[in-house]
Design goal:
D-Maltodextrin-Binding Protein, domain 2; 2 domains; 11 helices; 294 residues
């Protein structure tokens, strides 16, 4: 039997181009080959807000040659609140690459420039503040629901099917606000096309130091969006361990770190065992939360 891997590895991104997942996937697959001994091919399988790609990987042979670039919405949240063709236990953790907070942003010509005036505008104009959403129960959807709950405001979200289309709509003038990863909104804030409102982390994001945390402005919203690699649950443990070790070396690559920095991101690596523990805790916490709301 040939030693794994003996052929190219497929790296599946389940969202459209232009969002944080596709940006990160492009960086990962560009530098991957030396750390796996085979090319890693980036493939976008969009649809259903990530469900099409995730379901496809779940049904793929459990041999380590088809990887899913997952996240908390498609791997932990949505399988527990929606009827999907896969469940939380259909995947096995390989490696967490990093996480990002959400950064709330407004168009440069919006009638508000900071969180206080944004909340005031929403309260004075119920339902008229229209923001871009990625997917129902997705990253942007969740943080805007948190913002609405915390501030008692009525805002309207339009679902566009991914971070790439969602950011395109605010830049194109169809919406006035958005909340996305620093890798998606960072350059637009720096160029002046978007205004940074606040971020859902404990501290300001290193590449966007002038954007305050929502919590520091009196609205306690903490939300982290991880990006990680998972495989079908029947994948042999030695294969998972080898993949995890390869990603651990990859994220230390100088070229990788330079490219990650260029998209306003960073590394927060976890190997397969620690990532598995994080996944199980996150899924249990989300189940308890939604059970309490029934």
């Amino acid at each position: 039997m040939a030693e794994f891997p003996d052929k190219p590895i497929t790296f599946v991104t389940p969202y459209p181009p232009g969002g944080s997942h596709s940006l990160h996937a492009g960086v990962i697959t560009t530098v991957a080959e030396p750390y796996f001994g085979q090319p890693m091919i980036s493939v976008i399988r969009k649809g259903g807000g990530g469900v099409v790609g995730a379901a496809g990987v779940m049904k793929a042979p459990a041999d380590g040659y088809t990887l899913l670039f997952g996240d908390p919405t498609i791997n932990s949240l949505r399988p527990q609140v929606e009827d999907l063709p896969y469940g939380t236990d259909d995947f096995k953790a390989v490696a967490r690459i990093n996480y990002s907070p959400a950064v709330f942003v407004a168009r440069a010509d919006a009638p508000f420039k900071d969180l206080k005036s944004m909340i005031a505008y929403a309260k004075s104009n119920p339902g008229k503040l229209v923001h871009s959403n990625d997917n129902k129960n997705g990253f942007t959807y969740t943080v805007f629901e948190m913002l609405k709950f915390k501030t008692g405001t009525d805002m309207k979200g339009i679902i566009y099917g991914g971070g790439g289309p969602a950011i395109a709509k605010i830049l194109g003038g169809e919406t006035v606000a958005y909340a996305g990863a620093p890798s998606v909104v960072g350059e637009h804030i720096k160029s002046g096309k978007l205004v940074g409102i606040c971020t859902t982390d404990f501290e300001p994001w290193p590449s966007l130091p002038d954007v305050p945390t929502c919590k520091s402005l009196g609205t306690d919203i903490i939300f982290h969006f991880w990006r990680g690699v998972v495989v079908p649950k029947a994948t042999p443990e030695p294969v998972v361990a080898k993949l995890s070790a390869g990603f651990e070396k990859l994220v230390q690559d100088k070229g990788f770190l330079r490219l990650i920095g260029k998209i306003n991101s960073r590394v927060d690596f976890l190997g397969h065992k620690k990532f598995d523990a994080l996944l199980k805790k996150e899924q249990a916490d989300l189940k308890a939360l939604y059970d309490s709301l029934k």
